[in-house]
Structures are given as C-alpha cells and as structure tokens.
Amino acid sequence: MTHKASNINPNHIFVDTNVLVGGYSGDARFQKDADCLHYLYSLTGKRLYISSLSVAQLISMFQKKKKNDEIVRIVRELQHRFNIIDFVARDIDAALIETNGDIEDNVQYVLARKQKCSIVITNNFKDYRLFFNLRVIKPERVRSIPQ
C-alpha cells in the first residue's frame, strides 16, 4: 500500500512494543532500549506514540515477571510519556490487507500511519522496512533523530 509523503508528520514518532518491553525490563541485555527511551523522552517538539495494543502486550509479558504495582507504575509512566493510539475494527481490517507477513506489525503500522508518524523505533527492522513512507530506526540509532 503506497501513501503520499504529505500524509506524514516529521515530528511524530511511533515506538514499537519490543522497545518498550526491553526498556522497562530492567535487564542489562536491553540497555540500548532503555537508553533509547530516555533519549526520546528528552526530545522537544516531537510527539511520541504507542498503541493500546503495545500496552496490553507489555502488561501480558510482565505479568509473570513483575509485581502488579510495578506494572501499574510502568503503565502510568507510558500514559504520561506517550500518546496512546486506540485501535478499532477498521484498523484491524486495514492491517489484514497489508502485504507484510507479520499481522501484529501490520496493526502497529496502521496505527502509526493513523497518527501520521514518520518514524518507527523498533528492534524488528526486517518487517518494518517493507512499509512505505516510514523511517525505521533501531534503538541504538535513535540519536540520529535531532533534538
């Protein structure tokens, strides 16, 4: 699916679930994700987006690894730091007709496009690179986004 470049906003940045999970895991192996999030939080003039799907996935992944009060703290911080995009049946339908093989990434892409995001931060570069009009950045390269 091709979309016109005018349908994007260079100041809108979408962060994929895998970066959130890594960044809030507390695991030293994912320090690049935590550093990425800290850098994004320092940016001015940018709008940061995640999906409500990402919040649900993060909660599900942390449910057996963290205490509920810690999960609540993380979700509250996400609510404070990000604009959370809700998805509806129309978004799911749009994701199902995308040509990328990963349906969950298709949903995230549709939601990023819904908010006119020009940049997606993800550890899953191989699937997102198939989408048009998106600059796909790995967490360790996030400093290429100017302040």
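(the above was protein one; protein two follows)
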Amino acid sequence: MNNLMKIPTQEQIKRLPKALLHDHLDGGLRPQTIIDIADEIGYTALPTKDAEELGNWFREACDSGSLVRYLETFSHTIAVMQRPQDIVRVARECVVDLARDGVVYAEVRGAPELFTEKGLTMSDVVESTLEGYRLGEAEARAEGREIRVVSILCGMRQNERSQEVAELVVKYRDAGVAGFDIAGPEDGYPPSDQQETFEYLRRENAHFTIHAGEAYGLPSIWEAIQLCGAERLGHGVHIMDDIDLTGSTPKLGRLASYIRDRRVPLELCPTSNLQTGAAESIYEHPIGKLGKLRFRITVNTDNRLMSQTSMTKEMVQLVEAFEWNFQDLQRVTINALKSAFIPFEERLAIIENVVKPAFAEIAAE
C-alpha cells in the first residue's frame, strides 16, 4: 500500500510541513498580547482582561451571525497595532506561532492604512511588519524550526488608497513584500473599482490576489479574474454557484470551467467560511467537492484569533469530514506552494527539499 494513501493522525498532521497563503495579521494576535498592549497604551474597551476569556469572546462574536459584532473584533486588534513596537511584536509572534504549528511558508496580509491612526505612515507600517517577520523567523530558527514569511499588502475596497498601497508593494518587493490584495466589503465595492491599480501592478510585473466570491457571488469572481487579472482568488467559495450538482455527473459552467482549466488557485478558509455562511457545517463545505473536481484548492486560516484555528486544526477537520489522506494533504500543500508569490526556484526548493521528504517520512511511520 502506498503510505500516502493512509489517513494521518492528529499528531502526524501537527508535524507535517504546511504552506499558508491567506492569513490576516490583524486577525491572528495572541489574546495575552492584546491585553498587554492595551494596558500599555491605556486602551480600556476590551470586554475582558482574561486571556482565555478574551480568546473565546473573539470566536463567539464571530460565530454570532452579527456583522456588527464581527467588525467590532477587529476594532480591538487594530487599536493595539498603532505603534511600531506593537506591530513588530504582533508580526514576530505571528511567525513563531505559525512555525510551531508546522508552517514552513506563509504569506501574511494586512492593510497598512488601518495602522496609521496615531501618526505612522504606511511605509512605517510595512517596515515594522517586515522587521517583525525577520525577528520571528530568527526566533523560530532558534527553536529548530525553519519558516519563510512574506507580506501581502491590502487596499481596502471602500477607501481610496489602493494605488498608494500598490506602489508600496512595488517599492518593497525586494524586501519581503510579495504581492497585493484588496479586502473589505465585497457587496457594493466590486474589484473593477480598483481596475487602474491592477493595471499598474501588471505593468510593474507585480503579483496580486483578490478577495472574491466570499460574501458575494459569481460577478465578483468574474470581475476579479476577467477584468482585473487576479492570479488567485481569496476564498472563491461561491464558484460553487456555477456548478450544477443535480445530475449524476457535476456540470461546470463557463466560469467554473475557466477557473479549473486555468488552474486559478482558490484560497479556501474552511472555518472562516462557515462563520460567514458559506456552509452549515464542515461536512458541507465546498472544499470537499472542489477537491474531487480537481480545482486548485488550498487550505488557509484567514483569521486565527477570530476562528480560534490553526493550519493543523483546519487539516484535522478536513481529514475527519472528507477522509482525506496524506496524499490529499500533500496535494493542497503543493498547490499552495505552486501558487505562492515567491520565485519559482524557491517554491520548488521547498516542495522538493522539505514537503515531499517530510510527508514520505511521516506517512511511513
């Protein structure tokens, strides 16, 4: 029997090397860090100063179905990320936490404009973030864990600063910024609103992904791909709206076929997608069907604090829901690395020198 066809245990999944394409820096803080910084800056709006209670509050607020409560959670994390030293700390801890979870490559995103409320420039934010990532990599290495983390800079769809952010992507692309994204509300703010910015990025040979098909349907996905030229789709779960499952054989519509044929990566975030209503349970999450239909699916965390999740937790629940084996987990890991915004030879080195040997060794146990 091919060892990769075996079902991994939770302990084995924890040790597997993982690649993460969709993780928000301001959605992954340690609860204790929020409390520490809030005390230092005199921020008094936290619902509790007990770390465990605060972590649970974030998850419950995001599970509540209330958009107001969901958005409130980010007001707290953004409030404690307005000083350079705090951004450095959050970024450093992010890398260490990911490395301890077995992540060997991550693209972590954030919108620089959100952290300029107390006088920082967006360049200050980018530089503090990158400093934190480098410190985190060094700390992880000292613990015996190798990880590579790069930054994706987000423009907020409802604001007018995407062009500024895109220019920062180009400015810092040799310093650790790998690409661009737009985040924020999909409904009412289509990707085409930022079309000039995407054309600028293409002229500059810069990489970009677009949040699309998360809270809005096929028109958002179509614009992201066909008008704006996105290389990847942030979430993209609503591509299921273009797949007819009523017959004995699934029938893909034109857009779904195009995305599958072109191998457009889907940055799926199962737990987060459940919180935003993409499915009623993990067993009904589109990732199962999309995987069987051989879309280029990837597994991601989105907001680790708000979802109380990790790459290990995401993979464990997919193994339980869909009986994924080592080969399935290796496929989504290699999918992510194939789709990463770092140079080809660097992606290939991680696949051949890290991912494949580790999967083979752990599956052989």
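Reviewer note on protein two: The chain has 15 helices and ten strands.
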